[in-house]
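New to this. Look over this protein:
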Amino acid sequence: MRDRITGDPPRLSATEAAREVGDDDTLLVSGFGSVGYPKVVPLALAESDRDRSLTVVSGGSVGPEIDDALVEAGALERRFPYQARATSQAAINDGRVAFHDRNISTLGDEVLYGDLADGDVAIIEALAVGPDWLIPTTSIGQTPAFVENADRLIVEVNRTVPRDVRAFHDVYRTGRPPNREPIPLRDPGGRIGTDRVTFAPESLVGVVESDRRDQPYEFRDPTADDRAIADALRTFLEAEVERSPLFRDSLRIQFGVGSLGNALMGALGEADLGDRELIYFGEVIQDGLLDLLDDGDLATASATSLALSAEGQDRLFEHVDRYAEDIVLRPADLSNSPTLIDRFGVVAVNSALEVDLFGHVNSTHVNGTRVLNGVGGSGDFNRNAALTVLALPATAADGDISRIVPMTPHVDHTEHDIDVVVTEQGVADLRGASPRETATALIENCAHPAYRDDLHEYLERGERRGGHIPHDIETALDWHVDR
């Protein structure tokens, strides 16, 4: 372990490091896709006897050591900008923890310039550390911006992550406005940075050693609906790459994190793309992308996190040299950069809770009130992609709830952000459609047959009232009552 710590930084136990954190400090923690986050210091914070009211800012989702333990200890007062644990969700919905949701691409800047939160302490997981540098582990996320912003730095060196994982990293800083230079990345698989994050030596409080592994993703087996959605998406994309000159040489694609996204990745291996390269430019590397790389169906995968199952982690760690030829990890302000998403002509494929008849999408709040996670990177990709696809089952709760609804009670993505909707029922291409045409396409192509008549009746009531968007406002949210 000592060869991972260069120089002679202060070495602390987790308990000693926790004592260096003030009771109402703002903590900037590494982590994205529930990997690469600090583990032993947050646990020590949760186990301390002090009455704490901490603010925690992470680049993306983190594990139970933060979003379970700190909440259960009553030590977490405020949380930014994404979480995905049942414990933190309950605390936020009960009002015990304040939560503010943000897009991923701008988070680093908002922290760096004090628009969101000023960091007191950055707690960063690393696989190695030196006098003025650290090398992240399984995610990069917003670590560079967090380290730059925080007054003090605590580094957790995790010996369970192979040192060779550094081969994936491409850390590049964009500089500050108004003199920010154009990002010089010309190819999704290109490299423009280094494997490390630098910091001011005087900010380093100490180094803590850790041997806790990331909690791996647990992907459920694809359902019949997942497979039908994947088949519909594959058929659509096969036709689209033949139709559009945008995909003359390659298809550049992004998928949202989760079991459905992982299943959709796998379906691309069966797609007939002619002689076009398949390239991934997104946030997370999931097991489905490793499968595509193993089968020779994927040319490049660029992301900010290795969000893998236990089997996927073992496979990647055993063959780092092979995978490092095709996988690149970047800071989240590059992986989610609107400029790069636009430059590479990415096809964004994300899921959601529901979509209404006129194309507005709710990704985060059940019935518009109970938060599940956060908007994450879907806002970055849906708004800036060359083609935006929403993929979701037509129903939830074993068919008792339609995901195609008259009006969403919460909007994360507007009608202007969504081009195509795919469910197990079919595909609705909404490009150029009027609101009435959008509603008809969603009902006939994407809604479950059990709900089509009611949706048509709603649309007819709205049309009798008139207007460009024919809502029947008096009954618009009836579908969400008592759900």
In short: The mean pLDDT is 95. Residues 186 and 329 are 16 Å apart (CA to CA).
